[in-house]
Amino acid sequence: MKKTLILSAAALTLAAANAQAQSATYALDPTHTFVTFEVVHFGTSTNRGRFDKKSGSITLDKAAKTGKVDITIETGSINTGTLPFDKHLQSKDFFDSESHPNARFVGEKFSFDGDKVSEVAGTLTLLGKTQPVTLKAVRFNCFDHPRLKREVCGGDFETTIQRSQWGMGYAVPAIPDAVKLVIQVEAIKQ
Fold first, then answer.
1. What pTM does this model have?
2. Does 17 fall in a domain?
3. Closest CA to 51 of 68, 37, 32, 70
4. Residue 22: what pLDDT?
């Protein structure tokens, strides 16, 4: 009986060590990662833009179906293709980039559909306020990059937030409160 308990404990320790060995860290690939937004403009067209500067990392354990993502976005890097509009979005009316130069998403609850990430729940800090956000995966995949000779994982993630939750209430309701976020992410295994 004692020998069986020792063997069982050794097997559990080995299984735990193997599960931990599956965890890998991935660095965001800034050339294949984009944070974009869409908002309806006074009930007519859809305004779109993106943030050009972002950084972060992802830890993923596909065997344990766990992970963590930590992404920082420079709010002053907003790019709509129109400089005067960018300046207005950087102002106190919206992102207040001078006082709040960064937004940050930290997600620690990963959901999987089989071996694919299906959503990531976490928090978004913007304008000094932190609120819960869940990103749904539209697609997720990992592949061996032929040029980098390393694994790359990524996908398209989406959510809709109410900007007023972070204190960004300028022109609500004429400019709707709802903002769709579309995040294209690729990260390289380190």
1. 0.86
2. no
3. 37
4. 85
